[in-house]
Specification:
alpha+beta; 2,3-Dihydroxybiphenyl 1,2-Dioxygenase, domain 1; 5-stranded mixed β-sheet; 14 strands; 3-stranded mixed β-sheet; 2 domains
Length: about 475
C-alpha cells in the first residue's frame, strides 16, 4: 500500500491471502493441494520455455502463485445485496449470471471478481456466489420454516458494514481501516462447527436437498472451497492420489488441448466434519455435515460468443451420448468421447483468432516500434502480425461454466444426490436481490480486446488500420 489509504486492489490482496491462510488452517488438505500445484507449475514452466515466455510477457507469472477462487452460498436477498457491497470494497464486481437449477441445484449465482486488466494482473481473486432459490423448495411448510430461520441470522459483523458505509461515502479506506475490514470480513467466511438448528430440522432440510441444509443450518456462508490455478490439471489429477487425495472421476470442462480454452476443474470429495446440534439450552446432539472440499483449476483462453456456442454444442453431445456418475468406470469412456468430439474445434491460436472463436490481447512488438516506415505498408492486423510488428496473446478466461460448476457441486453432494428441476432461470429476480445488473463477461473480453488493439495500433503509428 502507498500513502495513508488502501486501494481496493490492496484490500483484495490482503483479504485473499488471509482467506487462504484461514482455509489452510481449517482444511489441511487444501495445503496439500497448494503444494501439489506449486510443484506442477514449477515443473511445467521448466519444461515449456515458450509457455513461460508468454506468461512472463503478459505478467501472468506473478499472479499465478497467488491466484485462487472461492465459493459461498447465501440464503437471502439481503445477504446477496450486502455481499455485493462488501466485495466492492475489494474492487470485485458481479460478472455473469449462472442458473444451476437446470442441473438439479436449487441456486442461481454470479462471480464477484476484478474487471480491469491491471486489477486482474495484480490479484484475480474471485468468489463464485450462489443464492438459494426458495421457490424451488417444494414443501410450503418447509419453505416457510427456512424463510423464518434465515431471517433471524446476521452473517456480517456490525463493524464490517460500518466500514462498507465509510467506503461508499468516501470511496476509499485508510490503511488501518482496511486491515480492520479484512479482519472483520473473515468472520463471515469462517467455518462454524455448531449448527443454528436442531438435528431434526437439519435432517429435514437435508432430505429436501443437501445444499439447502448447508445454506440454512449455520451461522454464515462458510467458504466451501478455495481453488488454486495449475498449468497442467491432468498432472494434478494424476498427482492427487499420490498425495493421499482421491479426485473426482472426471475433469470438468473441455478436454486436454495444445491451446487450452475456458476452464477445466477437478476436486476431491467434501469432508465429513463433526457438528454440534443444540437441542435445548442444556442438550447438544452430535452429528456430521459434508460441505467443504478441495478444487484445482486450469484456465485457458476466453471464447467469443461463437466459440462458446460451439463449445456448448459439443459438450452437450458428449453428455447426451455418455452417462456417468462420480464413481463410475464410464469416466474413461466419457473422457475418450470428449476428446474425439472436440477434434473439429480448432486447436491452434492462429485459427482460433482468424475464425473469431477466441479473444486476444494485442501489443506492439519491439520490431514494430523500431520500424515505423515498414509498419505503414502493413494495412491489416493480419499483415502486422505476419510481419512481426504486432503480437497477439489469448485473453485468460476469468469466469466459470454452469455445467462444470454443477458437476463439481453434484460430485461433492454424493453420487446419488439428484433433483430434476425444470429450467427456471430468473436473472431479473437475482439482479433485483443483488441491487445491480451483472456485467456481461463477453462484453468485458471484447472491450479488453478492442482497447488493447487500439493502443497497439496507436503505438505503431497506424490507428486507422481496420480489425481484419
Amino acid at each position: 500500500m502507498v500513502g495513508r489509504h488502501a486501494h481496493p486492489d490492496d484490500v483484495r490482496d490482503l483479504f485473499s491471502r488471509a482467506m487462504s491462510d484461514t482455509y489452510r488452517a481449517e482444511v489441511p488438505q487444501y495445503g496439500t493441494l497448494l503444494d501439489l500445484v506449486a510443484d506442477i507449475n514449477a515443473e511445467t514452466l521448466r519444461a515449456d520455455a515458450r509457455l513461460r515466455a508468454r506468461l512472463e510477457q503478459n505478467g501472468e507469472i506473478e499472479r499465478l502463485s497467488i491466484e485462487c477462487h472461492g465459493a459461498i452460498r447465501l440464503g437471502t436477498a439481503q445477504e446477496l445485496f450486502d455481499i455485493r457491497r462488501v466485495f466492492a470494497v475489494m474492487g470485485m464486481h458481479p460478472v455473469g449470471y449462472y442458473d444451476l437449477s437446470v442441473a438439479g441445484v436449487p441456486v442461481h449465482s454470479t462471480a464477484f471478481r476484478p474487471i480491469e486488466h491491471a486489477a486482474l494482473r495484480r490479484n484475480p481473486f474471485r468468489v463464485f456466489t450462489s443464492l438459494l432459490r426458495l421457490d424451488l423448495i417444494e414443501d410450503p411448510a418447509l419453505r416457510a420454516e427456512v424463510t423464518t430461520i434465515l431471517a433471524a441470522r446476521r452473517i456480517f459483523t456490525p463493524r464490517v458494514l460500518e466500514l462498507v458505509r465509510v467506503f461508499e461515502a468516501e470511496g476509499r479506506l485508510t490503511r488501518p481501516q482496511a486491515a480492520d475490514f479484512v479482519r472483520e470480513a473473515l468472520e463471515t467466511f469462517r467455518w462454524h462447527g455448531e449448527a443454528t438448528v436442531d438435528l431434526a430440522v437439519y435432517q429435514k432440510l437435508h432430505r429436501a436437498h443437501r445444499l439447502v441444509a448447508d445454506i440454512v443450518s449455520f451461522k454464515g456462508p462458510h467458504i466451501n472451497h478455495l481453488t488454486p490455478r495449475t498449468l497442467d490439471i491432468d498432472a494434478a489429477q494424476a498427482g492427487m492420489p499420490r498425495r493421499g487425495i482421491a479426485p473426482k472421476a472426471v475433469i470438468e470442462g473441455p478436454p486436454r488441448r495444445k491451446c487450452p480454452i475456458l476452464l477445466r476443474q477437478t476436486s476431491f470429495k467434501a469432508l465429513e466434519e463433526p457438528i454440534a446440534f443444540r437441542q435445548s439450552a442444556s442438550e447438544v446432539a452430535s452429528g456430521t455435515h459434508t460441505a467443504r472440499f478441495g478444487e484445482i483449476e486450469q484456465r485457458g483462453a476466453a471464447l467469443t460468443a461463437e466459440g462458446c456456442r460451439r463449445y456448448d454444442e459439443l459438450l452437450a453431445s458428449v453428455r447426451r451420448d455418455v452417462q456417468f456418475s462420480a464413481s463410475d468406470s464410464s469416466a474413461v469412456a466419457y473422457e475418450t468421447e470428449l476428446s474425439e468430439c472436440f477434434r473439429p474445434f480448432p486447436d491452434n491460436w492462429a485459427e482460433l483468432r482468424s475464425r473469431r472463436l477466441a479473444f486476444f490481447r494485442y501489443s506492439a512488438t519491439a520490431a514494430g516500434l523500431a520500424s515505423s516506415r515498414s509498419v505503414a505498408s502493413s494495412l491489416t492486423v493480419d499483415k502486422l502480425i505476419a510481419d512481426g510488428f504486432l503480437r497477439c496473446d489469448p485473453i485468460v478466461y476469468e469466469d466459470f461454466l454452469p455445467v462444470s460448476a454443477a458437476g463439481i457441486f453434484q460430485s461433492n453432494l454424493g453420487a446419488n444426490e439428484q433433483k430434476n428441476y425444470a429450467a427456471q432461470s430468473n436473472r431479473a429476480q437475482f439482479e433485483e436481490a443483488l441491487g445491480a445488473v451483472v456485467h456481461d463477461k463477453l462484453d468485458l473480453y471484447a472491450e479488453e480486446e478492442r482497447t488493447s488493439l487500439r493502443q497497439a495500433l496507436k503505438q505503431l503509428g497506424c490507428p486507422q488500420v481496420a480489425f481484419i
